[in-house]
Design goal:
Layout (H helix, E strand, L loop, with lengths): L16 E3 L1 H7 L4 E5 L10 H15 L4 E7 L3 H13 L2 E7 L8 H8 L3 E5 L4 H17 L4 E4 L6 H20 L6 E6 L3 H12 L5 E6 L4 H18 L11 E3 L12 H14 L8 H13 L9 E5 L16
Parallel strand pairs: 2-10, 3-4, 3-6, 4-5, 7-8, 7-10, 8-9
Antiparallel strand pairs: 1-2
The protein binds pyridoxal-5'-phosphate.
Length: 327
């Protein structure tokens, strides 16, 4: 699948797939599995390491000397981009939406350790940051550099295709374990991970209910971003073949907003950790985990449906939530 794409190896693959026996038993799922993309390896791992392999491949093809990307102050994507640049020997510039804190913690601390140049901007949304990204790219070109723009979350075809390829990896593992997933639950921000998984399932001819749990935008907005990525990939890569995707986005777990903790998320972090030793993150997988638990307890996932929870990483952000340590 997509064998002609340029790739720079960064991730430790395949990531493990294993059972969550205790959590599964407690929420009435006979076969609950977890796909450990928190273990992609590079600088605490996460889903962006897969994406960055192909982003870097493309940047190299374009002879880029600098990667510029954007995100929130605690962006996992920015931390993984900084790490990828460190490995590749490229300059990394991060445009972060939010105030510079007095003390660097979590992902921000790691960004600095990884050698990224960090600039702070008012926190007025990812779209505005993406516009700033274009402005910075133009300025760098004026200075004779050859910068490569990576939009928030690597929401671009080469940042999406790696998750189609990851479906091939998952299928090899599920065949070995002798089951076929009926449902996949994955946290969704910009939508690239979900779009890639949907494309992979289509190319492998799999009939799986793939549920993107939105942590950022309402379902309609997220679906149109996912559809847009899928359409671009169908246009640019004929091997995908035209298809009308079923895009399932659940926006009922956003709570009070992006990155805002709720009691439900705190309980979810506790349940995964105490039952199966799995550390989730407070922004993405905590909300997707809450969705999984509620759906199972409400009977929206039949007990005999093999279900894969896709862990996308993000744990360094835990250290930027001191309130999690309140006793
Ligand atoms: C830990 C984690 N999970 C999920 C996502 C969402 O991925 P996507 O933007 O591809 O929807 C992100 C994005 O930053 C993330 O950091």
């Amino acid at each position: 699948m997509f064998d002609d794409l340029s790739r720079e190896k960064l991730a430790f693959l395949p990531t493990p797939l294993h059972r969550l026996k205790n959590l599964g038993n407690s929420i009435g799922l006979d076969e609950l599995w977890i796909k450990r993309d928190d273990q992609t390896g590079l600088s605490f791992g996460g889903n962006k390491v897969r994406k960055l392999e192909y982003v870097l491949g493309d940047a190299r093809k374009n002879k880029a000397d600098t990667l510029v990307t954007v995100g929130g102050v605690q962006s996992n994507h920015c931390r993984q981009t900084a790490a990828a640049c460190a490995v590749a020997g490229l300059r990394c510039i991060l445009l972060l939406g939010g105030e510079e804190p007095a003390h660097y913690t979590g992902n921000l601390l790691l960004d600095r350790m990884l050698g990224a140049e960090i600039k702070f901007y008012p926190n007025d949304g990812l779209m505005t940051l993406n516009t700033r990204l274009n402005e910075v790219i133009e300025t760098l070109k004026d200075f004779g550099l050859n910068p490569y723009a990576v939009p928030a979350g690597a929401e671009m075809p080469v940042g999406t295709i790696p998750y189609a390829i990851a479906m091939e990896e998952l299928l090899t593992q599920t065949k070995k374990e002798q089951f076929m997933p009926g449902k996949i639950i994955v946290p969704t921000g910009t939508g690239g991970t979900l779009a890639g998984i949907i494309i992979g399932a289509h190319m492998l001819d799999l009939d799986i209910d793939i549920i993107g749990v939105s942590v950022l935008s309402d379902a309609e907005t997220t679906k149109s971003r996912v559809q847009n990525l899928i359409s671009r990939i169908i246009d640019e890569y004929p091997e995908v073949g035209a298809f009308k995707p079923k895009i399932h986005v659940d926006d009922s777990f956003i709570g009070d907003g992006y990155g805002i903790l709720s009691d439900g998320v705190k309980t979810t972090l506790d349940m995964f950790a105490k039952m199966d030793g799995i550390i989730l993150d407070p922004v993405y997988t905590g909300k997707a985990g809450l969705a999984l638990i509620r759906m199972a307890l409400n009977g929206d996932i039949p007990s005999d449906t093999p279900t894969v929870f896709w862990h996308t990483g993000g744990q360094p952000a835990l250290y930027a939530y001191p309130e999690l340590g309140d006793v």
